[in-house]
From TrEMBL:
Transmembrane segments: none annotated. The lineage of its organism: Eukaryota, Viridiplantae, Streptophyta, Embryophyta, Tracheophyta. Its cofactor is L-ascorbate. The keyword Oxidoreductase applies. It comes from the Eukaryota. Pfam families: 2OG-FeII_Oxy, DIOX_N. This is gibberellin 2beta-dioxygenase. One of its GO terms (molecular function) is metal ion binding.
Amino acid sequence: SVFSSPAFAAMVMLTMPVLKQSSFCCGVPVISLSEPDSGTLLVRACEDLGLFKVTDHGIPMELIARLEEEALQFFALPAADKELAGKANPFSYGSKSIGSNGDLGWVEYLLMEITSKPLSMDFLQKPSASSFRSVLNEYILEVRNLACRILELMAQGLGIEPSDVFSKLVMDGESDSMLRLNHYPPCPMLQELNGFMTGFGEHTDPQIISVLRSNNTAGLEISLRDDSWVPVLPDQESFFINVGDSLQVLTNGRFRSVKHRVLANALKSRLSMIYFGGPPPGERLAPLPLLMAEGEQSQYREFTWCEYKCCAYKTLLADNRLDRFHK
Ligand code: GA4
């Protein structure tokens, strides 16, 4: 037929814009930040899944490895010493209990508030914690810059100006961001149970953007639109980025705040470090007018980040936190 003729094929190739496909790893888009087209690819990934993997990110592996080592050393301390780092309310050390409303998981963690100043938690001020403290502070600067670059690429990919519309929110001196170190110890009874154990229950992240790095242990899963769960293969050299509720609101639902969870592993321990980039407390969250088509209405009633966060912290992990702000 005419469709199989070489002339037709040549015509199609000349007239159709070549849509660059990102490569995929088990359904997760993989985007190199040195790719000239990365903005477009990021946008597509945020619309489709709400999560993607980033390579060529520029954060030195040596820094990441140092933080991993310090974190593992911390989690290897006797329970009593870790407890000294403070009860999680919501900052500092916590074990099995997540948030303050009864969620439980097979996990222990350190949750740290990021301000414009270096970390100030008591347990990090001890001389013995000085190398942990300095690597944490270094890492925070790097990962925040990475979040900023990615948010700028997103704005470019969306074709909106100025390119810092999103990134300025996490770079602001008042921005309410956090760093979380999660340690999922092996869960040997899983082998006998022949089932699964929740490490960190299903939830969406309330902030704008989350930047996750883990060691080589599996466990992270994301929920697709049909409510099925798919595992995200670990990759210790790359970062996984996911859209938070606030970015879903800023894009009027165009970007998807992805539901995810972590399952415990029977044999290996998993260590992840996640930067949550949030806006300043007083920031009004509403869809960017530049992203609205003519006549398009906001899906959400307007609210400030502190209003959202305050409600969010009263919910259970699995609750849909954006529901009550839906119009
Ligand atoms: C999920 C994303 C971040 O880990 C976090 C979590 C927070 C916490 O652990 O204190 C919350 C959870 C997270 C959302 C609902 C509330 C608050 C636990 C919980 C049950 C630090 C965040 O900002 O929101």
